[in-house]
Amino acid sequence: MASTSPTPSERTARLCAEAALFMRDHVLSRVSHDLRSPLNAIHSWAYVLERKIDSADAAAQRALAGIRTGVEQQVHLLETLVDTTRAETRKLQIERAPFALDALIDETVDEARRALADTRGVSVGVQGTPTGATLDAARERIGQALWLMLTFATEASAAGAAVSLDVSTTATAAQFDVNWQASREALTDAALPHLLESFARAQACEQQEAGRCAWVLALCQRVAEAHGGRFEARPLVEGEAASLTLSVPISGT
């Protein structure tokens, strides 16, 4: 039987699922990293206490044994639950191939409009095309990252607002800037239609630690890193200009 192309709704569902998958991976990565540091400290201090406490003090020795056992149990949980769950997505595999950048931009913008922007009354425009550029990269992954950037900007825009995708290319890199006026209220308003998870949208409103992006944008960051590029997100400030930037090398070499 001949395969059929996915419908727009199936395509949107797949894009949302990919965003959720890498958001899960991002959160688990932070859990693994942020829990191991204090566990290592507890383990080290237990050895310090061991040298200070009388070996004949049975109660103190039982307390130290309990501390070590607790640390070992937590490390085991991280290894068997967190690390195993992340095994599939810990390293993003990409398949590079040359493709026409302008065609991908047209497809991705159409998907973003159809999936949410039109329903929310948000216009999505493109600046800097046609580029005539050919990108040697993972076409599907670049498209997913751009779609998520446009969708997030739409989620964080009031009705009647405009989202702009600005495309620029040089001999060595392609850069994509999504610009809009931030509306944190629109991002979290349960009465509005949404595509992204509610808890992730709420977390995106919080102040992010230096060098870390909002959970919901994890896929964009991973795609950038896998291509040797970069991803940046300006903090969301109500009523002020917001931007997301994805930059990737033109060539895979």
From TrEMBL:
Which cellular components does GO assign to this protein?
Answer: plasma membrane
Q: So which domain of life are we looking at?
A: Bacteria
Q: Which Pfam families does the annotation name?
A: HisKA (PF00512)
InterPro entries xref list: HATPase_C_sf, His_kinase_dom, HisK_dim/P_dom, HisK_dim/P_sf, Histidine_kinase_KdpD
| Enzyme Commission numbers on file | 2.7.13.3
Record key words, sorted: Kinase, Transferase
Q: Which reaction does it catalyse?
A: ATP + protein L-histidine = ADP + protein N-phospho-L-histidine
- Name the chain's protein: histidine kinase
Its lineage reads: Bacteria, Pseudomonadati, Pseudomonadota, Betaproteobacteria, Burkholderiales
